[in-house]
């Protein structure tokens, strides 16, 4: 989805010239913070990353560009989504985007005709929270896995920094993502390596799990991005 994104206080640490997210630099390295430019938001159902071999129902990808020292870097934030993660709640962020999700064919970006506020970080005991605020695109607990990988859609270019949150959002809007993301309405047959089914019997739009090729995977946590 393309939109006019409202981005406040959202930056990424960069060490040295091009160590985005400071994954490989020593702890005493100098750090600068690169502002992000949001390129698009899209969804995969089922999820493209798995945890202990298990996929989640869906995965949101926020694709951003970070420019430091005149060099552009791609960073993708991944958020797992699943009704099995909890009781399942209505996600306010997805509710706002629902009309555009319903119009999506799964083959391209659907323009959103208004400004989009990406997420709100409020303390659970704040007056604004009042016990009924639901998470936005990112989970409240921002523990994450990070690694250097590639895009999951053609041309599958390398040199992408992935930041995948370890805690899935519990949502009750999973079926709407399945309907929007299935790139064909025809039921698929027996699942194979390149033809997987979701719970509605339609083909999914997730890339199959790739070998890690000895890439290190880091784990970290921040209070907010």
UniProtKB/TrEMBL annotation:
Q: Does the keyword Nucleus apply?
A: no
**Catalytic activity annotated for this protein?**
hydrogencarbonate + H(+) = CO2 + H2O
Q: Which UniProt keywords apply?
A: Lyase, Metal-binding, Zinc
* Keyword Metal-binding attached: yes
Q: What class of enzyme is it?
A: lyase
EC number(s) from the headed UniProt entry: 4.2.1.1
Q: Domain of life here?
A: Eukaryota
| PROSITE patterns, per the entry | ALPHA_CA_2
Pfam families from the entry? Carb_anhydrase (PF00194)
Fetch the Gene3D superfamilies from UniProt.
Alpha carbonic anhydrase
Organism, as annotated? Coccomyxa subellipsoidea
Cite the SMART domains for this sequence: Carb_anhydrase (SM01057)
Q: Which CDD domains match?
A: alpha_CA_prokaryotic_like
Chain ranges of the Alpha-carbonic anhydrase domain? 1-221
UniProt xrefs under InterPro entries: Alpha_CA_prokaryot-like, CA_dom, CA_dom_sf, Carbonic_anhydrase_a-class
Q: Kindly provide the name given to this protein in its UniProt entry.
A: carbonic anhydrase
Family of the protein in this entry: Belongs to the alpha-carbonic anhydrase family.
């Amino acid at each position: 989805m393309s939109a006019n994104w409202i981005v406040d206080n959202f930056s990424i640490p960069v060490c040295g010239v091009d160590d985005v997210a400071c994954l490989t630099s020593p702890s005493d390295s100098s750090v600068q913070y690169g502002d992000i430019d949001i390129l698009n938001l899209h969804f995969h159902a089922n999820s493209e990353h798995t945890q202990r071999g298990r996929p989640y129902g869906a995965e949101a990808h926020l694709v951003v560009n970070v420019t430091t020292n005149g060099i552009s870097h791609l960073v993708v934030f991944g958020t797992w989504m699943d009704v099995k993660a909890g009781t399942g709640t209505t996600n306010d962020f997805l509710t706002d985007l629902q009309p555009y999700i319903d119009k999506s064919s799964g083959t391209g970006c659907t323009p959103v005709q208004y400004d989009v506020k990406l997420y709100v970080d409020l303390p659970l005991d704040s007056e604004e929270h009042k016990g009924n605020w639901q998470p936005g695109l990112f989970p409240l607990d921002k523990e994450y896995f990070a690694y250097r990988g590639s895009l999951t859609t053609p041309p599958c270019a390398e040199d992408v920094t992935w930041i995948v949150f370890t805690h899935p959002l519990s949502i009750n809007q999973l079926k709407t993502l399945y309907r929007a993301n299935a790139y064909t309405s025809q039921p698929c047959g027996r699942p194979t390596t390149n033809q997987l089914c979701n719970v509605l019997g339609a083909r999914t739009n997730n890339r199959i799990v790739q070998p890690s090729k000895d890439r290190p995977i880091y784990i970290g946590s921040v209070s907010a991005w």
